[in-house]
Specification:
This protein has 271 residues and is α/β, with parallel strands linked by helices. Helices cover 30% and strands 15% of the residues. The strands form 3 sheets. A 5-stranded parallel sheet has the order 3-9-8-6-7, with helices on both faces. The longest helix is centred in the middle third of the chain and has 16 residues. About 8% of the residues have low confidence.
């Protein structure tokens, strides 16, 4: 359940001797303290140490609310077990996150081993990397679209870029990929609506439901073989790019760069 739900009156008499907190680095510390304070004898926090909770208030950040529980426990001497061998992503995709946020500690496995059907994970479990075969060899691709973004309420969209994204999806599907293999993520809700509208002109509604399309919040915790990132913006934003704003928040890019298994496409007005 969500950490804050453990404070429900229905659970007032229920102790939690063992607390296992998933996504502990994305949960606000006061929320996680609710189950921990209910008689816990053991606490297991699982999460990405390079991530942090999204805190909008500058005053709250100044008081340390953006510090996650895992970091706090580690500073107090708690034992931390690091998983540094990943068997999920293409080596070319994991390379940048590894050197940028994890001190080159995260290691991939040999690409040839990933393509072997008989390869197994430690413990003898069958290894499934990705059976998707792309029409291009590159695992990471950047696509420039000469376009402009427009305001839509408090959000923004880029019609020409959205058309390019759907064209890319069609190209991939015509060359053996399925919609369910593909994910599309963008920072703007208006762009999500624009993409869904354009996709509806090409694919039936039932097929579109298999496409992982949304903002970062919709993609958290999900993996996909191919991820297409639509950046939308064509000019420097006039709004604040403080760390708590998604345009200046590394957390958004961490999610984008760690979700795809086989290939990553970044579509935008690139310099």
């Amino acid at each position: 359940t969500v950490a804050s739900n453990t404070g429900s009156p229905k659970l007032s008499d229920v102790p939690f001797a063992f607390v296992a907190a998933d996504e502990a680095t994305s949960t606000l510390e006061p929320e996680l303290l609710i189950p921990i304070c209910k008689g816990s004898l053991q606490v297991l926090c699982v999460g990405d140490p390079a991530r942090s909770p999204l805190v909008h208030s500058d005053a709250a950040r100044a008081l340390g609310l953006h510090t996650h529980t895992l970091s706090r426990l580690q500073s107090k001497g708690a034992v931390v077990h690091k998983l540094v061998h990943q068997h999920r992503m293409h080596d070319a995709i994991v390379h940048y996150p590894s050197i940028t946020w994890y001190g080159s500690a995260v290691k991939g496995v040999d690409e040839q081993q990933k393509n072997l059907q008989e390869s197994v994970l430690p413990g003898g479990q069958p290894f499934t990397y990705s059976r998707v075969q792309l029409p291009i060899p590159a695992a990471v691709s950047m696509l420039h679209v000469e376009s402009f973004d427009e305001k839509c309420g408090f959000s923004r969209f880029n019609y020409l870029e959205a058309k390019a994204v759907i064209s890319l999806v069609r190209y991939l599907c015509l060359n053996g990929c399925r919609l369910s293999d593909i994910g599309i993520v963008t920072p703007f809700v208006a762009q999500v609506k624009c993409l869904k509208c354009l996709a509806g002109m090409v694919y039936p509604e039932k097929e579109i439901e298999t496409l992982n399309l949304g903002t970062m919040g919709d993609l958290k915790g999900k993996d996909c073989d191919i991820l297409v990132v639509s950046l939308v913006r064509t000019q420097p934003p006039l709004v604040s790019t403080a760390p708590h704003h998604f345009l200046g928040n590394e957390d958004w890019f961490k999610v984008c760069l760690t979700r795809p298994r086989r290939s990553l496409f970044v579509v935008g007005h690139l310099p």
